[in-house]
Every structure is written in structure tokens, then in C-alpha cells.
Design a protein that fits this description.
Layout: E1 13-15, H1 16-22, H2 27-36, E2 43-46, E3 49-53, H3 54-67
Antiparallel strand pairs: 1-3, 2-3
């Protein structure tokens, strides 16, 4: 079950599956955007765990909507 997240919660972190639910692109495209600086830089929690601040993801969504 997906939990509803408040947009203004700056302490919330999203893992990649949660990000891709909000921004419907492929995993490889997401990592390409991160490398190019189009997407926010992730926070490494471990060797195989990266998270992103929810506020940064929602800001990206707003920017993508403004471009459309």
C-alpha cells in the first residue's frame, strides 16, 4: 500500500520505486537525468541504497509541469 505523503514534509525520503511512481520514466532514464543534473542528486545510505528528498522530487515535478 502506498502511503500519502505531504508535499511540505522536508524530512521525507523517497527510494527509487517511489520516485518512479511519481515521475513515470524508466530507471535508466532516471539515472541518466541524475548524471546530467536534470534530476536532484541522491543521498547514498549504503552501497545499494539511494534516496531523494521528497521536497526535491516535488520541486522537479513542478519544473517538469511548467516546461510542458
Amino acid at each position: 500500500m502506498t502511503q500519502k505523503i505531504q508535499r511540505n514534509d522536508s524530512r521525507t525520503l523517497y527510494r527509487l520505486p517511489q520516485v518512479l511512481e511519481l515521475i513515470p520514466i524508466g530507471r535508466s532514464t532516471w539515472w541518466k537525468w541524475c548524471a546530467e543534473g536534470k534530476a536532484p542528486k541522491g543521498i547514498k545510505l549504503g552501497a545499494k541504497t539511494t534516496v531523494w528528498k521528497a521536497s526535491a522530487i516535488h520541486q522537479l515535478i513542478d519544473e517538469l509541469e511548467a516546461e510542458a
